C-alpha cells in the first residue's frame, strides 16, 4: 500500500469512527440522545407516542416539508394505530373539502370509485403530489378495508380543512339544492352571482385589490351560510334526508364564506398576517365542525405542515401577529391536544422551483448550524422520537427551525426556509429523521 492510499484509508476510517461516536452526555446533543426513543421501520417503535395520545381529543401530526416520504409514512403508521387501538374517528388533512369528500365516500364504502387512486382523482390543482401520492393511496386503501363491515357510525372518515376550493364548493352548494330544494337553489345562485368577481382558484388570484363590491359580496355569502345552517337544522332527522349530505352542504357554504374573506384580506396591502389568519381560523372552524358532526366524544387526527400545527405563539410567526391551528386547538382543548412536529437534516424532497411549476426531486441541503435539525443530527441517531414535555432544559433556548413548503429554494435557504422557534413550547413531541427521501407522486409526469 502506498503512503497516499494508506493516508486515504486512515482518513476514511477516522471519519467513520468520528461520525459513529456518540456525543458526550454532558453536551446538549448527548442529553437529547439519552432522552430520545429510536424510531425504526417497526410500527411498535411509536409505542411511546401512541401512549401519549391515549387521552387526546386531537392529535396533530405535522411535517417539515410537503414532499418527504418519511413524514407521510410515519403519520400513516401512527394514524393506523390511533384508529385501531384508540378508536379515533377521522383524519383531517390540509386539503380542499370537496376533493377530500370524494375520498371520504370511498373509505366509507360509498360512491362509485373502486380504488383509492381513483378516489384521489379530484386533487388536481397544484401541488398535485401533496395528496396524490403512494403513501396516501396506500393509507386510504387500508382505511377502506378497516371500515368494511363496520356500522356507519363506527367508520373512520377522511376530511379536508383548507379553503382554496371556492369555485368547486360553490358548485357543490348549488348541486345539493337542485335535489334538496330547487326553488332555494335559484335564490342561492342569484346570491352567489357576486362571486363572478373572484377567480376559480384563489391561489391564482392573490393580490386582487379589496373593493366595496368585494365587501358586499362577503356579507352576502355570510348571509347564505347563516341561512343554510338554519335550513340544515330544519331538515335534519327528516326521513330521506342524509345527515352527511346536510353537513357537506353547510361545510361547502362555510368554505365559500371564508374563502371570500381570505381573498379580500389577501388583496389588502394593509392586511399583514390577516390572510394567513383567515385561512388557519377556517381550518380550526372546520375541525370543530367535523367533531360536532361526528359526536361530542369524537377524536381526530390532523395531517398538515408544521407551520400550521405547531403553536404559533412559540415562533417568530406569532410575534409577527400570525396565529395557527395548533395554537387555536391548544387554547380550546388544552391537555386534550397533542402537537407533534417532524424534522429532517438532509436528503431529498419532492418540490417545485416556482409556483405551479412541475414537481422535481430535489436535494435538501444539510441543516444550518444553530438549528434544531443540526442539533438532532449531532446526536448521531438516524431516527428518533423525543417527548418534549420531558426534554433537556437546553432545548428551551430559541433556535432556527426549517420549513419547506411546496417550493424549495436552496439558493435562499436561510431566508426562505428557516424561522426562529422554541421547539418544546411549539410541540409536545418531535420525530426526527436524519436523512429522508422524496415523496413519490402518483402522476408519472411528476416523478
Automatic annotation (TrEMBL):
Give the matching InterPro entries: Emycin_Estase, Hydrolase/PRTase-associated, UCP036794_erythomycin
Superkingdom as given in the UniProt entry: Bacteria
- Keyword annotations: Signal
Q: Name one GO biological process term.
A: response to antibiotic
The family database entries (Pfam families) matched by this protein are listed as: Erythro_esteras
SUPFAM superfamilies, alphabetized: EreA/ChaN-like
In the UniProt record, the signal sequence range is 1-20
Entry's CDD domains?
Answer: Ere-like
Q: What name appears for this protein in its UniProt entry?
A: Erythromycin esterase-like enzyme
